[in-house]
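Re: weekly structure request thread

Next one in the queue (238 aa):
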Amino acid sequence: MVTQFDIGGISVDVVFKDIKNVHLSVYPPTGRVRIAAPCRISLENIRLFAISKLGWIKKHQSKLLSQELESPREYLERESHYLWGQRYLLHLADVVDGPGVAVEHRHIVLHAGGDAPTQKRQALLDDFYRLELKEAARPIIAKWEKQLDIRVDRFFVQRMKNKWGSSNPRLRNIRLNLELAKKPAECLDYVILHEMLHFLVPDHSARFVDAMDEKMSNWRLIRQTLNEAPLPYGEPLN
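Done, posted below.
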């Protein structure tokens, strides 16, 4: 159940969960504010907490509202698309041995036929990104499994509106946002480490930050690169 209140003209969504600490988030692209709070904390105390963070909230909302959005994708000839942080031009080609996608020089070649509907072109490209991300994620997960001495039983790739990744330590799985295939490869490394560390530290406490610092000293710069990249059109991310 979601409860709402206003502070300084800003609407705040509150979700009560079986957690230990209060978590405040400001979500792109509109700057939606959400607080996840332990069930034991009263709504009035949550309101006071939000008021104490009002300056921080406004600062982050202002930053998000000024952030660049990608233009809508139409999957047309010579349209710009990204793979691992690099810009490619889309080339529409005839079907060869079935529909598919290939990378040739500075082009992403979409073998779908010139009369294929937009939805079909998008689906083929999404399948290509999903395969790229899965193949890139496997060795990274294996690396961090060894260094952290933990095991990931399964990982999933999907579209996620509010997060770059998530984890379920109990089920020993992680989820990765499909959009990561478009970002620099170090962003995927950072997100996987972040989510796998939650198997050991469930929150974002000082202990978690110290572990991130130990394993990836430049993680803050990578996070900044990821969060300052243009947001996909119509897909708010966190």
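The helical segments are 43-52, 54-65, 118-148, 185-197, 206-215, 219-228. The first strand starts at residue 2 and ends at 7.
Next request, please.
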